[in-house]
Amino acid sequence: MSLDKKLLVSASPHDHSKDTVTRIMLDVVIALVPSLIAATFLFGYRTLIVSAVSVGACVLVEYISRIVMKRHQTVGDLSAIVTGLLIAFNVPVSMPLWMVVLGDILAIVVVKQMFGGIGMNFVNPALAARIMLIASFPTEMGKWNAPFSWKTETITTASPLNAIKEIYRSGEITSESFDGLPSLLDMFLGKRAGSLGEVCAIALVIGLIYLLVRRVIKLTIPLAYVGSFAVIMFIAGGFNLTFLAYEILAGGLLLGAIFMATDYTTSPINFKGQIIFGIGCGVLTALIRLFGNLPEGVSFAIIIMNILVPHIENLTTPKPFGTVKEKKKKEAEAK
Amino acid sequence: MAEKKSLMKELTKGFLDENPVLRLVLGTCPTLAVSTSVESAIGMGLAASIVLICSNVVISALRKVIPSKVRIPAYIVVIASFVTIVQMLVKAFAPSLDEQLGVYLPLIVVNCIILGRAEAFAGKNSVLASAVDGVGMGVGFTIALFLMGFIREFFGTGTITISLINGGQPLWNSVFGENPILIFILAPGGFFVFGMLIMLANKIAEKKGKEKAQLHSCKACPMFATCTAQEKEECDR
Question: B233 to chain A, minimum CA–CA distance in Å?
């Protein structure tokens, strides 16, 4: 390198990193692949069809809406693929495709592009789509296919979450209460009914480890989320470890904590804020699961905390070096 | 001639430029609550329009008699009288509509649009102009409610049903007949449709050469010229 290139004078930022949006989104997609493979294995080839349609629709809708809104094209940053995959992961395998596409359109057009595109969405687009789908099509969103039943004959079954709720509602939690449920190992490996991406805990954890190694996300939010949730569930379940384990593995808690709550746009920047955010998600999820009418509360909890993020940021903005807090300033002036 | 032209303007401004729901964002409570079906939307629109026209006329006629300090209670009394009349008529001749509208029918008394027009227009203008203003605003309100009701019923229930026509049978089955998108008749769907229609109305107004709606500016407000807040510098922009 010649000397004058080394002494190049330019405006900030001076330090460049290779972490572009595209690179980060690609990492998230890679982290989601184990779950996709697991879901295909468990629920059959229709998993791939649902995922492909969802991703395709998201990319297409993003492309078209950027053109219609006369803004520069951002479809290349792969964020639409992440949204599409997450929406597919949030629906059961038997979901009619046009409903999935409807969710994609809501997520990309209404939640993301109408608020200014990537980095501007006020809540997680995939979660907004999931909530819209639950509110609109409760029957289709509650049709759980039994794992491996695609090979022979499709059998629908109850989601473990409903059974757990029944157990909690019955008031007494004994070791026999869980007899009707898949074993804990099955729950961990994913041999149970549920949405596409949420069933296989081990695949989600592999995704988490990949994201941690690549430093795409930090452990703060998932840990604060699952931790606070576990504490409440441990107390609510009468200090029953089996109940706690079922609550953590069932439903979309891990999927939500790892891939949805950690969305950059809709989570706080500071460590302190992230802790508040994670605990808020955990407490709300636990409360909805324990006292709500719906069996699952992850999506609602994260969406509510998403909306509170600007306020959390306001509360946790660090004090710039050398400045005095407003309150102290006023006190000093009063003296 | 000039008088006639301005009357025409008073009539048409309520349709779009100063549409009470979509441009002034008044009366949002009944708008969101009763726009779940075309039937209740039109019923609400007509009931409110009748009250609006009558109260505008009476308030305008009494504008020199009513002391300005007690004008709001006086307006409310006038409006409440007409609401009572309309409510009794609806109860007598369209009981099913009365059931659908429920508490929102008597709540027309405190409808912002009616009170707003009384305060902003009828209390300052002649009887004829006030009547025309009432008609225009009433039509604008009904149009907005009809649009919302149509969109929400079409997607949310999959059919369009008006009980007075076709003997309660669905007039039209939409493509979503078997799997209606339920969220449209729930509250969030109402807010989304409302937002979309406001956006559309703003876009059309912008195309017609009106000020562009912006986040930190009052200039696009249809009431900007007559707004009292800017005189008192309450408006910080």
Answer: 27
